[in-house]
Specification:
Blueprint: H1 2-8, H2 14-23, H3 28-39, H4 53-56, H5 72-81
Helix pairs in contact: 2-3
């Protein structure tokens, strides 16, 4: 990722980003997310990101903002502590 960013940045074209994702065999949304995180520009490549919260949240204890997601597993712990 660092090499790609050094070669193609600071303005990453969609074509280069998609080609890079294909080269490293990952979903373009992962590359888009990494570029957003590393550059701090969150409005780029949004069309390549897909919603995953409904997949990740059922098995997570904390979401990406630090909020606890109520699940059977962590609710049982709360009841025991009361």
């Amino acid at each position: 990722m660092e090499s790609f960013m050094n070669r193609k940045g600071p303005s990453f074209s969609e074509q280069n980003t998609l080609a890079f994702a294909k080269t490293i065999q990952v979903h373009p949304g992962l590359v888009a997310g990494q570029l957003q995180h590393k550059t701090g520009i969150y409005n780029r490549f949004k069309s390549h990101q897909v919603p995953i919260r409904h997949i990740v949240a059922p098995n997570a204890i904390v979401d990406g903002w630090g909020d606890v997601i109520p699940t059977e597993r962590n609710l049982k712990g709360v009841e025991k502590n009361r």
